[in-house]
Amino acid sequence: MHEVTVTQDILEKALDAAKVNNAKAITKIRIKVGDFTGFDPGCISFYFELMAKDTIAEGAVLEFEKIPLSLNCSACDLTFTPEDFPLSFACPACGNTRNRLVSGKELSVEDMEIDV
């Protein structure tokens, strides 16, 4: 259910940016979402459709770019994507489980298309 709050933030940011640019309509919003966020793009799209009703964002297409989880091993410095995510974060080269997150936690509105 945390997608509701995230979706509300996405819509508010889009509407604020559209207002600054004197937009008549928002037609597309591009969003990066990391695998490790737990956010479901399908849920975000569903809530967005409901929340955008009767705004200039109504009918806007949400385009998602999924960012894979990537870790860096603190023992051997290998950067890798866990094969058994979310079950295991062990380094495939040395088995170390103390790894640093490199990517996969992103959630950002990258850009949007508007009609002026």
Care to describe what's here?
- By secondary structure, the chain is an alpha+beta fold.
- It has a domain of 81 residues: hypothetical protein PF0899 fold.
- 25% of the residues lie in helices and 32% in strands.
- The strands form two sheets. It has a three-stranded mixed sheet. Strands 4-3-5 form a three-stranded antiparallel sheet, with no helix packed on it.
- Strand 3 and strand 4 form a beta hairpin.
- The radius of gyration is 18 Å and the shape is elongated.
- The two termini are 34 Å apart.
- The model has no long low-confidence stretch (mean pLDDT 94).
Topology, element by element:
Elements lengths: L2 H18 L4 E10 L6 H11 L9 E7 L2 E4 L5 E2 L18 E5 L3 E9 L1
Parallel strand pairs: 1-2
Antiparallel strand pairs: 1-6, 3-4, 3-5
Helix pairs in contact: 1-2
